[in-house]
Design brief:
Length: 255
């Protein structure tokens, strides 16, 4: 067979294959958009303590575009994760016409920020926004600092709070100041300057303070909860102020 005839036959075969593939592709695109493949339901499971599954499905269903085969799962995932209290959503198709969504909610462990912009922080050290009135725990501590340091602030709280709790002095607030120093506020309204540094640097100062606190306060016939303020930023000691105790001489008070 002449070479030119072979080339023509090969070209014709390639064209036929291309047409067949193109036709099949067009047919498939047409078929997957048929109403028969519309999504008939969304099953939601996992953590749903703060969200009603029926409301969730209804709100997200309004944003769904496409059929079982063409729906953008990334957009569905984003829609669920935009709902308050939802931290993470895993979405998958369940043949022939449903979606399965597994939710993970934020577990609030502390309030975050000042009173004017009070938010929440979860167990992963992530700041999130939700209705703080829905928090189940009545006595969450309050943490504060730059948002990008939220995980570090939570980690520091988890180190120092148990130390104070051993002396029955709960930490109600821990903040990382603009200057990079740590400050703890106790339930007794005492303010404790912890100084700069990592948890490995701050914890020894706290232990040194607490190990001698009873001795110092009893010297002035006071209990540990009489502390008004303390400054632990000294290299070999600390400064302390006790409620009802003054270092000012009596004669100077009369002037």
């Amino acid at each position: 067979m002449p070479v030119d005839v072979k080339l023509m036959n090969m070209t014709a075969a390639v064209l036929l294959i291309a047409l067949a593939v193109g036709g099949a592709w067009a047919m498939a695109r047409w078929a997957v958009h048929l109403p028969a493949f519309d999504i008939k339901g969304i099953r939601v499971s996992g953590d749903v303590s703060h969200n009603n599954t029926i409301t969730l499905r209804a709100n997200v269903a309004q944003r769904l575009q496409g059929t079982f085969f063409s729906v953008d799962l990334a957009r569905v995932k984003a829609a669920f994760e935009a709902v308050p209290w939802v931290r993470r959503a895993v979405v998958r198709r369940v043949f022939p016409d449903r979606l399965q969504v597994v939710l993970q909610e934020h577990q609030a462990v502390a309030y975050w920020g000042g009173q004017r912009e009070l938010r929440l922080i979860n167990s992963y050290g992530e700041v999130f926004e939700a209705n703080v009135g829905e928090v189940e725990a009545d006595m969450l501590p309050q943490l504060d600092g730059p948002d990008e340091m939220a995980a570090e602030v939570l980690a520091m709280y988890r180190v120092v709070a148990p130390l104070f709790a051993e002396m029955e002095l709960p930490v109600s607030r821990l903040e990382l100041t603009q200057g990079g120093s740590w400050r703890a506020h106790l339930d007794t309204e005492a303010s404790i300057e912890l100084g700069r540094g990592t948890a490995d640097e701050v914890a020894p100062r706290v232990r040194r303070f607490l190990q001698t606190l009873t001795q110092v306060s009893s010297r002035y016939e006071r209990r540990n909860n009489a502390v008004e303020s303390a400054d632990l930023r000294y290299e070999n000691g600390y400064a302390i102020r006790l409620r009802g105790v003054s270092t000012v001489a009596a004669d100077s008070l009369k002037k």
